């Protein structure tokens, strides 16, 4: 069921090079599962017509947190993103929710491997933070690829979480200096891939390439779950 919420844009901030995070107030009683997403609808004053004023975003915030956060890679060619960047803090926006089944599996005896790059980190950050907050017991590995540390959203936070939680293993890969993620990278740093539920998120082309790498590294194709982003 789709529900419309009228919420306030509290603030926005740059969380990585060319990546903007938007913080919204959380409506009373609003519940969602980590990894799900909603549509952000800009007001009429944004200058966009109705057909261009809506865009879907995963929640980067975790359900236990007090606000809702969404993040996106900014592009000059996107009228929606440019309008969102100009929207004054305190403006009222609409949120249409709730969709998505890209959520953490229940069986804590089965490891989780997250493989993503760039803006694909948004639902992953939500899932991992919620699991660690709940002390769920899952063994979680994250391999996160970006061209440089400056382009890696939430990199410092993920490093800190990996230091604080022995069950969370984080490998950042910076392709400008280290090269691209390979099947060998996955075999060495992805935990028990053959047993793991593997999660891929990001633009369609990246998800397709990463799926092939996972299979090459020994993942069970039936255990690969994906969330493909549109508009990138």
UniProtKB/TrEMBL annotation:
One function term, GO molecular function aspect: oxidoreductase activity
A Pfam family hit: NAD_binding_1
Gene3D superfamilies associated with the record: Nucleotide-binding domain of ferredoxin-NADP reductase (FNR) module (3.40.50.80), Translation factors (2.40.30.10)
Domain FAD-binding FR-type, chain residue ranges per copy: 2-105
Organism: Comamonas flocculans
Lineage start: Bacteria, Pseudomonadati, Pseudomonadota, Betaproteobacteria, Burkholderiales
Cofactors required: FAD
Name by which UniProt lists this protein: FAD-dependent oxidoreductase
Key words, A-Z: 2Fe-2S, Iron, Iron-sulfur, Metal-binding
